């Protein structure tokens, strides 16, 4: 009998103690989870900031160490469903092509430098480049050679453009018109920021292309069989007139029409932001064109499952709202002309 009474008191005391401990745990979790999430967000922001700054330093170093007189550039890429990457590229030569309004233009051709590590931003951290008014070709200029030539953008206004490097059919040979991006360019040997706005081509081979037909079937010029792409591009650029590779073939292989190349322009300011924060702003503003982050592309661009094509697809109204809201949520960086440092000039608090 005495044993039963003691057992009952022990059991009651244990239950009360357990409830008390559980209450304390719930309170601690309620306090610590937001703090932990805030710490993770802060760490990701610091990582993104450091990644951008490191890329600018590497690109400038590549220019300072240029032994062939070629400029260097930090080029921004996005693979749908992946992360933003910044690739250090160096100049390989020049290629004549068709520019805005059908005019012939000379474009510098850049190729990734394998000696520099590719910088990758944290998941959902994106970077847009500032395209000044009249830099983007209007809808009427949707011909070969149009940088972001599309009705999505108002060409006479300032736009924050996104790297459209992966929204194309990688198995098709002539999808280059859908590949656009921006770069930060540095002058060879001086390391100064390149202030011109002239277009450039970035050679980034799509290894899925069917290369069994001409002109892609020439073994000596197949990127899937070469490791030194800069040397390959230079060979193509230096082929004399009347050689086995015609000017038209060369344009198909490394020009703006080629799926292996990306049309780019230099920018001086970039906006870096957490896409999820931008999404919260779009929802708060009740933007009708916003339907959420696309699961396939992990961006604001619609996936092929929705639009039936891997071409860049985003509502013009949504682009307009992003242009308006981005300065509110993003860290805005200006690249210093002489040091190449990414300096924060504005941004969300």
Search tags:
12 strands, 349 residues, six-stranded mixed β-barrel, alpha+beta, 22% strand
Quick recap of the structure?
The protein is α+β, with helices and mostly antiparallel strands. Helix content is 31%, strand content 22%. The strands form 2 sheets. Strands 1-2-3-8-9-7 form a 6-stranded mixed β-barrel.
Question: How would you describe this protein?
Answer:
The protein has 349 residues and is α+β, with helices and mostly antiparallel strands. It is 31% helix and 22% strand. The chain has one domain (2-347). It has 6 helices and 12 strands. The chain has a 6-stranded mixed barrel. A 5-stranded antiparallel beta sheet has the order 6-5-10-11-12, with helices on both faces.
- Helices and strands, in order, run as HEEEEEEEEHHEEHHHEE
What structural class should be given to the helix and strand makeup? alpha+beta
Instruction: Provide the domain count.
Output: 1
Helix content: 25-40%
Strand content: 15-25%
Mean pLDDT across all residues, rounded? 87
What is the number of beta strands?
Answer: 12
What's the Cα radius of gyration?
A: 26 Å
Largest sheet: 6 strands, mixed, barrel
Strand order of the largest sheet: 1-2-3-8-9-7
Span between termini: 68 Å
Enumerate the spans where pLDDT stays under 50 for 5 or more consecutive residues: 7-11
Q: Count the helices. How many?
A: 6
Shape: globular
